Amino acid sequence: MKNPFSIAIHGGAGTLLRGQMTPELEQRYKQALTDALDQGFAILEVGGTALDAVQRAVCVLEDSPLFNAGKGSVFTANGGHEMDAAIMCGKDLSAGAVSLVEGVRNPVVLARDVMDHSEHVFLAGAGAMEFAKQRGLQFEEPDYFFDQLRYDQWQEIKDSDHFQLDHSVSKDHKFGTVGAVACDRDGHVAAATSTGGMTNKKWGRVGDSPMIGAGTYANDQTCAVSCTGSGEFFIRGVAAYDVSCLIELGGMDLAKASDVVVNQRLLDIGGDGGLIAVNNRAEVSLPFNTEGMYRGFKKSTGESQIAIYKD
Fold first, then answer.
1. What CATH number is attached to the domain comprising 91?
2. 40 a known binding residue?
3. What does pTM read for this prediction?
4. Number of domains the chain is built from
């Protein structure tokens, strides 16, 4: 008998307060999340792999200007866009990751190619982009990534030493890292994460998203995890792997392990954000310690949710 299957997605966590967003914008966010969820779930429905499902869901979110990934990536200190992504297969622990890539339309596709078509796990900068060209990936001109709101955000702090996570400031517009986790009919899990990083970031800063074990992790024996939030803390806490570890060695279930990492371990070191997780029984967990997190899940049982705020 085949397993139940499920998929969960996120579009960033942070200061998301009810009433700070217009109903029209809120509907746009919910529609974008629904589209990503539906396209990923459709792959699982016809017996496709968790890996293909999370890649598809993340591509949909990368193609939306609403989220800080792909098309909607924030501006760096020098006015460019440096994108990171990772993908991991729980079946055999294979993984691919890229960082500091520019012009690549879908960084998660490049991460998948690193996993499938190179002997490496993590490529960065010029080398990653050279590999993308060899693989024939789609590149876009800089104006494809231009978003007026992102530009305005950058203008406010660009000549300072400040940087910011998109979702950490109380404004009408929130953006964030995107991610997906899934369990397929064969009980295999996978995770994928993609981000444009921090506004006004300098020195080739890399967050947790592309780091296997920090922002992205998958293991059939435990869970698949994709994180979003203050990346430096997720790196220091090895957050994604910590969830897996609490299940494997701590004997916790998915919900408990996820909750401990987000609402205890990260908070203990000053980190804010959230994560999505799924196990090989298609159970999902979506904890966050901020005011909100763009999130959703869909299960073969018919249960589904799209949500933004805490309640």
1. 3.60.20.30
2. no
3. 0.93
4. 1
CB-hemisphere CA count at 13 Å for 229?
32
DSSP E strands: which ranges in 184-261?
189-195, 216-219, 223-229
H-helix segments, the chain: 23-45, 50-62, 107-117, 125-134, 148-157, 231-236, 239-248, 254-260, 266-268
* Domain assignment present for 306: no
Residues designated catalytic: 177
Distances in Å between the alpha carbon of 201 and those of 111, 136, 163, 165, 230?
Answer: 22, 28, 6, 9, 13
Of 54, 102, 44, nearest to 78 (Cα)?
102
Q: Is residue 307 part of a domain?
A: no
103 is in an annotated binding site: no
216 phi and psi angles, rounded to 5 deg:
-145, 135
274 is known to lie in a ligand binding site? no
- Distance between CA atoms of 280 and 210, rounded to whole angstroms? 23
* Residue of higher predicted confidence among 17 and 221: 221
176 is in an annotated binding site: no
pLDDT (tens digit, 9 = 90+) per residue, 90-124? Answer: 999 999 999 999 999 999 999 999 999 999 999 99
206 appears as a binding residue in the annotation: yes
148 is in which domain, residue-wise? 6-301
3-state secondary structure 58-90: HHHHHCCCCCCCHHHCCCCCCCCCCEEEEEEEC
In tens, the pLDDT along 42-81 reads 999 999 999 999 999 999 999 999 999 999 888 887 888 8
